[in-house]
Amino acid sequence: METGHIRIEPLEGVASGWRVVLSNPGRLNAMSRAMWGELKSAFEQINADAGVRCVLVEGEGGAFCAGGDISEYPAFRFDEAALREFHETEVWGALAAMLACDAPIVASIAGACMGAGVEIASCCDIRIAGASARFGAPIARLGFPMAPREAQLVAGALGEAVARQMLLEAATFSAAEMQACGFLSRVVDNDAVAAEALASAGRIAALAPQAARLNKQTLRALKSPSTLAGYAQAAMEDIVNSAYMYADSAEHREGIDAFLAKRPANF
Q1: How many CB atoms lie within 10 A of CB 206?
Q2: Which of 21, 112, 222, 236 is most buried (most C-beta within 10 Å)?
Q3: How far apart are CA 91 and CA 113, in angstroms?
Q4: CB-based contacts of 224: which residues, under 8 Å, 6+ apart?
């Protein structure tokens, strides 16, 4: 059964602004496969409108996004081809659509921001979080790594040292720690996150939209000429080609089975 959806709506009080809402409230807005497809469609719609001045991304209720919807994982993650299709087409398709957005994107982050939530937030330009928000990508507990393009994105946004802690120690971080490493633009009281994010979107929308779009294009170009942490783009393709061979491994199955059974994993 498909769960969750992405809602796109005009951003109240902000001229030519859009709100994109991650909505899977019973699962802390964890991203289902359907939601990844809807997120891609939402940003393709936004990207086709040259008049958009700002986009605000937020989660429904008291969380931003707690990661992926693990209840769906046994249906596809243990097959290499299906796993590659999920990450390279579904997940990366949505993230790439966000990265291609020339309108500035503000992330309004409350509560849990884990895994997929960190990836989505990494595509945003301004990230504002509540003081009690928590960040991490503890997927090593589930027996699998972060996909290569997603890891490249996250390491670029967080910095390599923090990304290594997230992925290798399954470490989680406070909002204050994420601000200290440069990931968050501002940390505010929990009850002020929505208002502060909306105010930021309003300030952006009141400025010259052409300047904002050109600034984003410049910043994108500065990041793109093929290297991160010493890997050329050709090397990234080689990494991707072998990245999903773990699909049917015992560790991968055990990590997900243990999570769904609510028991400790035995690696």
Answers
A1: 12
A2: 112
A3: 16
A4: none
Q: Which of 218, 239, 247 is nearest to 84 (CA)?
A: 247
Q: What is the CATH number of the domain that holds 146?
A: 3.90.226.10
User: Does residue 54 sit within a domain?
Assistant: yes
pLDDT band, very low/low/confident/very high, at 187 (cuts 50, 70, 90)? very high
> Of the ranges 98-112, 206-220, 239-253, which is most confident?
98-112
pTM comes to 0.90
Q: Which residues contact 166 (CB under 8 A, 6 or more apart)?
A: 118, 135, 136, 137, 138, 154, 158, 172, 173
Per DSSP bridges, beta strands 112-114 and 54-59 are unpaired
What six digits make up the tokens of 145? 């790594």
Banded pLDDT at 235 (limits 50, 70, 90): low
Q: Which domain holds residue 119?
A: 5-191
Contacts of 169 (CB under 8 A, 6+ apart): none
Six-digit token string for 254: 């055990």
Cα–Cα dist 180/201, whole Å = 23
Q: Tell me whether residue 72 is in a domain.
A: yes
Can you list the positions of beta strands (E) in 71-110?
105-109
- Answer whether residue 246 is part of any domain: no
When pLDDT is averaged across residues 202-221 and rounded to a whole number, the result is: 90
Domain count, the chain: 1
